[in-house]
Amino acid sequence: MGCPRSAARVHTGVVSAQDVDPAGPAAPLPGRAPHAVDSTPRLSLPPALQTWLRDRSGQAVALALLDVVDLRGVNSAEGHDVGDRVLSDVAVRLRLAQPEGPVVRWQGDMFIVGRPAGDVGSRVRLGDVCREATVGLETPGGRRVLVSVGSSAGLSAELVLAAADRERHRHRNTLMAGA
After folding, report:
1. Under a CB-based contact definition with an 8 Å cutoff, are residues 171 and 124 in contact?
2. Is 99 a domain residue?
């Protein structure tokens, strides 16, 4: 389960959950157009993602929400160092596969990946890219690492993430049924 040589450079694009602003996201901007990207959702998003969304105000975005399935089991069976390595490897693979937008770690074993959404197919392509990037991950002990992925696109980050989360749950259930 090796990392490419550029892993240190690539990994710097990942924001850890500790970087989430404890005060929460900024208040909505006065005079904001109703069709603009909701770059200040009520969710506690990492600052790097908030900035990326704010910079795309008025533009559609595609977001993918990923969950490393049973990371707790990896930590218990092989140790937290191995679990940390799994998270790092997922981040590196996502960054290499999807350089067009942010790759941020969110809520422990979850990641959010973004890209501009030029068309309806952007959501599907982003989800496919993330799924393909995370296939074949294994721990040093040979444990297969599953990553559930959901993606969506639209103008409201909060609605896009909610739709991506629903799809991620469906994908997780499919993965668990086949495991």
Report:
1. no
2. yes
Residue range(s) defining the domain that contains residue 160: 46-178
What is the rounded CA–CA span in Å between residue 167 and residue 11? 26
CB 80 within 8 A of CB 65: no
17 in any annotated domain: no
* CA distance from start to end of the chain: 20
- The CA distance from 20 to 3, in Å, is 26
Number of domains in the chain: 1
The answer to whether residue 98 sits within a structural domain is yes
The tens digit of pLDDT for each residue in 149-176 reads: 999 999 888 889 899 999 999 999 888 8
CATH of the domain at 93: 3.30.70.270
Where b means 16+ CB within 10 Å and e means fewer, 102-134 reads bbbbbeebbbbbbbebeeeebbebbbebbbebb
CB 86 within 8 A of CB 68: yes
Give 60-69 pLDDT, tens digit per residue.
999 999 999 9
What's the pLDDT score for residue 121? 78
- Calculate helix-pair angle for 80-97, 71-78, nearest 10 degrees: 140
Q: Please give the distance of CA 99 from its chain centroid, rounded to a whole number.
A: 13
